[in-house]
Amino acid sequence: MQGTGRVVSVHYLPAILLLVHALCGSVDGKREIPVGAIFHQVPDHSYESEIAFRYAVERVNMHEKHFELVPIVRYVSPEDSFRTERKVCELAAEGVTAVFGPSSLLTAGIVGSVCKTLEIPHIITHWDPEPLGGIEAELRAMTINLYPEADVLSRALADLIVDYSWKSFTIIYDSDAGLMRLKDILQIHGPADAPITVRQIDDDPDYRPLLKDIQSSGESHIILEVRPDRILELLRQAKEVKMLEEYQSYIITSLDAHTIDFEELRYSRSNITALRLMDTKSFDIKNAVHDWEQGEARMKRPFRVSPEHVHTESALYNDAVKIYATAIRELDATEEITPARLSCGSKNLRQWPFGLRIVNYMKVKTEHGITGPIIFDDFGRRAHFHLDIIELSKDEGFKKIATWDPTHGVNYTRSQGEVYSQIVESLQNKTFIGNNRFEGYSLELIDGISKILGFQYRMELVPDGKYGSYNKVTKKWDGLVKYLLDRKADLAVCDLTITYERRTAVDFTMPFMTLGISILYAKPVQQPKDLFSFLSPLSLDVWIYMATAYLGVSVLLFVLSRMAPADWENPHPCKQDNDEVENIWDMCNALWLTMGSIMGQGCDILPKAISTRLVAGMWWFFALIMLSSYTANLAAFLTMERMDATIESAEDLAKQSKIKYGVVMGGSTMAFFQTSNFSTYQRMWASMESARPSVFTKSNDEGRDRVIKGKRMYAFLMESTSLEYITERYCDLTQIGGLLDSKGYGIAMPVNSPYRTAISGAVLKMQEEGKLYQLKTRWWKEMRGGGQCTEVPNSSQENELGIGNVGGVFVVLALGCFCAFLIGILEFLWNVRKVAVEEKVTPWDALKAELKFALNIAVTSKPVHNTLSESTASGKSSLRSKSESRRGSELAGRGHSVRTAASLTNLDKSGLAFDKH
């Protein structure tokens, strides 16, 4: 079956078959309808196409009762247009009713032109592009093409690229015709999308320089639009330069990719996808292959081909014969189809009258063959067809994963479970290179994932210590993202935030932790306790002014009461003829009235004159205002004296300029403020950008240290999870305000990583089982010094005033009581002295008598002593009467009975005796 000998041997088939038909034609009574075919004289799959054509004719003849197709085959060179024209004219002279082939654009055009002139159906099975000026219906009136229409096939490739979410890719092509087939792909990207790279290969068999250039560009998505005989060698060289790894993806546009033996590449880790026009597991193709093998065996020409490796052109020839035979059968039922010998060079050019009818019938007829549904448009192009999307697997070679049709687009045939199982299986012997920068949490996270999926891993640190940001000037990434783009790592496991910009460069799993931006700030400094904190609501000046006002009002009240007649009263209202009046508003009572007013307690005695009442009223108003203000502000002031915090939210930071604030340079938090449209965050970014010295840090640890050393003059904006980790270990730091945004941490990996689905599933499983929460609790609150600052004071208790804040009130109360006790003793001694003088006894005796009476709590009344003795019974002096009158008034003013020495003591011979009453 190899070499030119095989091609030469089939040249005898026409004569042999014609002889058979000549011998048997009269036996079965069938009318002969000759059909012509033109094949190329090259040792390629044209031999298989010819076999498919001949045995399709044979199978038709087995089932037809009224006619028999007689195949007439000619051979031409793909570039020989003159010989091609001569061969097609020979076929016309032999009375063929249709011409099949050839398969090159040049020779097929010549055949189509002759068939159009003679109105003989021309059936082709190769890609035929639309002319630049558009299709002329008159020129294609007699042509039927079973190969998928160029624009629709290009749309299928474009849909596949969109479904694969390829943001950028490189096209490798070998001919201009191949690039024309991809015009829809070239149009799916807009001006803002990543550019598409187009590279052409020449006849040089060394493709390595080209592949190395693509590798250095970081491109991992490649479309191969090259001849099938070049595909295997190109991929083999790609493997040599390590361009066939797990993060490279290839789409082969040739519909014959499934016929290539990829055995040596089946175990490569790259994704290789191709398109196929036929279902290789269908009964029709198996039956056709059986016919080919059996027929060639009868002719002593061994032929072996599996249904999975049948070329597209061969299958199309089989379907072309089938649909043409159907048209002949249907039309012959109404009018007998008779062949006619036609001449290309005659002056009176004659056309076959049935040709146009057969072509029009085929255009409207819907058939189903080896290559699926066959539907043509008005120009004879196959506008509706189905494609199998196949993927190279290590176990089965090319395996069907999806289908495509113009109506529904890409439709996957494998379940998610199958995809997951395939990925997990490929992970079994995989050793991941990851990147860890987040203590033990990341290690335990990836360890848990590896136990679920069964892979090994090795951790490495990124050299520059950065997360990953895009430099618009150099158009390059740094940090973790660059590490992944350079294929130096398979995974990036750390506190890496999922952002839109990073998502355009790498892929992320589902978030394993949610978070937001918050503010790290130093806790307020605890102020020393002050016993006299209760005085703080009023300044020292106010207290001095109040004391001055208190004394001034008291003196004014005393003076005005001495001047006002209404404040001079009769001490004995019952004695209307009393010629003496008294004024109770001495300095002591004036001070007592003002003191009672300012304390909010009032007084039992009130001024009566208008002037003194006005003074008292104004003082009461003043006292009421001051007391209310003091009471309202006391608790708040005593609470706030312990809190010297000046910020509570991001808005507070934005409104002030005293406290500086910053973020990690090049991180996602910085990008948040740079791109935010919110006015507050825009002001904050402008403030950070213009601050000198710079407020940006290289890491979270540097930001933490700067907050500690900043003495509440620097705040650090960072992600809440890292902030929580810090505040669990540094008790003098705290979180201020809530979250400024919401986002998540994800495990990053190269774009289109085949392991993303499996790793996301493992993360979800750990989340559902509560393992992610356990990990966070372990590494935030238990390990490496965590849990030191877990005591959170109750908010109500935090606002309560302790003894350390209001102890001064008790001190003042104690001092006041002590002073009152001393004054009471002095008053008692002063009264003892007066009793001793008036009763003419010794002070000691008077003291004992008064003290004994005061301590005798059972006595509730005190009798009035008779002050008249025998020596003074003859009369009263006016001076003594006035003295007793004044003393009685004073005692009455104090609310007590008139006390005299005689009411307490009796004198006898033995000395001082107490009354027993």
Describe the structure.
Among the domains are: 428-515 and 744-779, Periplasmic binding protein-like II (D-Maltodextrin-Binding Protein, domain 2, 3-Layer(aba) Sandwich), CATH 3.40.190; 521-526 and 644-741, Periplasmic binding protein-like II (D-Maltodextrin-Binding Protein, domain 2), CATH 3.40.190.10; 533-569 and 581-639, Helix Hairpins (Orthogonal Bundle), CATH 1.10.287.70; 810-836. The protein has an eight-stranded mixed sheet, sandwiched between helices. Strands 7-6-8-9-10-14-15-16 form an eight-stranded mixed sheet. The chain contains 31 helices and 30 strands. Helix 3 (46-63) crosses helix 11 (283-298), helix 3 packs parallel to helix 12 and helix 19 crosses helix 20. It is rod-shaped. Residues 1-27, 641-645, 794-799 and 863-917 have low confidence and may be disordered.
Largest sheet: 8 strands, mixed
Number of strands: 30
Helix content range of the residues, please? 40-55%
And the CATH topology of the domain at 428-515 and 744-779?
A: D-Maltodextrin-Binding Protein, domain 2
Task: Report low-confidence residues grouped into runs of 5 or more.
Answer: 1-27, 641-645, 794-799, 863-917
Oligomer: single chain
Structural class by helix and strand composition: alpha/beta
Task: Summarize this entry quickly.
The protein has 917 residues and is of the alpha/beta class. The protein has 31 helices and 30 strands. The strands form eight sheets. It has an eight-stranded mixed β-sheet, sandwiched between helices. The protein has an eight-stranded mixed β-sheet with strand order 7-6-8-9-10-14-15-16.
